[in-house]
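Box S1 | Example of a co-folding query
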Amino acid sequence: MDFTANMYKEILVALKNNGYSFLLIKDFIASDKLPERYVLIRHDVDLDPFIQLEFAEMEAEMNIFTSYYFRYIDKIFKKDIISKIYTLGHEIGYHYEVNTKAQGDSKLALELFQEELREFQSNWNTQTICPHGGSFNPDFNAYGLGAIIKNLPVFLFKRKELYSNWSNFSICRNQNFTDFNLLGDAYDSIDFSEILYLSDTGRSWGKKHKRLDRVQLRINKEVDIKSSKHLIQMIEAGYYPHIYLLIHLEQWKDNFKDWLGWYLAQLIRRKGKRIIFGKDRIN
Ligand SMILES: [Zn+2]
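Box S1 (continued) | Returned holo structure for zinc ion
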């Protein structure tokens, strides 16, 4: 089985043993001199803040520090958890979705953005952000099997209501990051021309389920990672000295029942997305 906590640890061990420096996103953006080999690990906290702490502790025990982007919604924005992760030495970023919240009202979206960002900055010295691009409405939990079964009639007959039409991308595009005391965006501010970019969206490293994979550059065009074992082989072979991993830790569950629920949920999500967007998108 792939995408388990153990497999995640194996990836970290392989990176460490093969001389990769683990860089926080903020340090990467701010730095003008980079190590020869490095990896950026970004965690988008979309669904479950509690499981993040377990992984954050595991990373810190291995002397590895990564970047965690938290949504500002009740079930995710748990200050005590975030503070613990921050205290361990990890970076805390703001995973915003203000356009969805403001239903496209851009003035309101900007106000929300500033208000929420202030919370992150005053508590955890947040310097980088990235948008949450989930296609489901924020209050709809479409990820668990139970939720899917409960909402099956809605899925079948009123699918449109489940999806949000508002894109959360690039609130800052017309603004300067410095106006907000930010260093940049965890995706847009990074030049991927020499970086292998991989995302675990849909419990797969492959590209075919990822609509917003805008990284179409040389390195990323030629690579198709089949599994985490394959990724580890690539790390050990040293083909890619610069790697960026987008990881949703909720997906790295060990329990088979959880895994099955996830698998079915992802299938339905993909199908739904295809109907709405023609293609698939990542979160
Ligand atoms: Zn997200």
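Strands lie at 21-23, 38-45, 67-71, 91-96, 128-131, 184-185, 196-199, 242-247. Residues 44, 46, 95, 132, 134, 283 surround zinc ion (CB under 6 Å).
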